[in-house]
Amino acid sequence: VDAVLRGESGSLRVQHKGVDTLVAFAPVATYGMGVLISESVETAFAPARRQAWLRGSALASLVLVVLLLAWIVGGRLAAMYEDLQRALGTRDDFLASASHDLRNPLSAIQGAGETLARSLELTGEVPPERLQACIAHIRSASRRMAKLLDGFLDVAQLQLGRPLELDKQRADVKALLQGALDEAREAAPRHRFELETPDELYAQIDEPRIHRVLGNLLGNAVKYSPAGSVVRVKAASGGGNITVSVQDNGIGIADVDQQRIFERFQRGTNATGRFAGTGIGLSGARQVIEQHGGRISVASSLGHGATFTIQFPRGEV
Amino acid sequence: MRAVMQWALEDSGFAVTNAGDGHEALERIAEAAPSLVVLDVGLPGVDGFGVAAELRRTHGSAVPIVLVTADGGAAEKAARVSAQAFLRKPFEMRLLVAAVQRCLQAVPGT
Fold this sequence. Notes:
The complex is a heterodimer of chains A (317) and B (110). By secondary structure, chain A is of the alpha+beta class. In chain A, 51% of the residues lie in helices and 21% in strands.
């Protein structure tokens, strides 16, 4: 007050009654008076502080949103990248095992052809038993290749999201089972096969495809169980359905794998790396059975074998 | 396939016995004391590696192995069992015969 009365102007920051206070003063010369304004620092800077806080929080929110977006996009990209890597990996695995699967029968056909040619070269004729064996080799190997290719084509259809074009006809399921078992016996002479089936068993099915499903289940039963063990096949009819189960005494399937193994390119944890396979057999089997309006399931515990069961409508027979 | 390979080797003057799986192979090896073993990796039961390991355990490196495989990485697999030669399916029978002849010539005393 003294200063303003002296005609001075200025500002101060003082402790006034224990409050941090800003004081500004200036003379009003023409009237011989002065003006003095005092305001606590807290009140004086409140609007500025509020504004600063608002600006700060807006900026912080923006940064947060950007970070969140980056995290989401980044995570998505990483997941997509992983998916892509996995897809490429499984495709490579599939190509490797598919070419492996084709090499064996191809090799048998080539070998049989060479045998015939060499016999003719050496002696001008082919001994009958060789001729017969070579013909059998060529026929069974080409059948195997045709089946493999059919399976690969179905996988490709599935990949494109297209349903299979089933060709359902009245079929003798008992004969089909016996045929599939005969082939399995031929391929695995050291296993024992048992079949339990009603005498009359007919259904409206795509016979070659159901045959392939049976071949796949029997092949798995043999592959994952020790030589000399029994593979038991049971068929039954009831409630308009036909049920076929294939039971083995093999390595079994862990609980966590029991759903997964029906997915394409997925195999049991205890099978991967120990047994050859593409991981398409069971997914193809499921596809065929489901498109027949049926279902496929497995009951198993690790080390105690597995029982695969397929059930499908018998249809009008 | 086994019969075809057997004929190819027999036509070239070798005496051959064959086995359908790993267990049988080990039995035949014990009985026949072969000069050489042609081994498919993808045998049922005991696989080719198992047979090779057992063969190496019982006979050391005295019996050469010709490895036959349908898989990739044939050379690496052959090295794993110290096979003297390997063939990748499909292969021509004359290559099998040539591989067998070469391996037997390389064994001292035969």
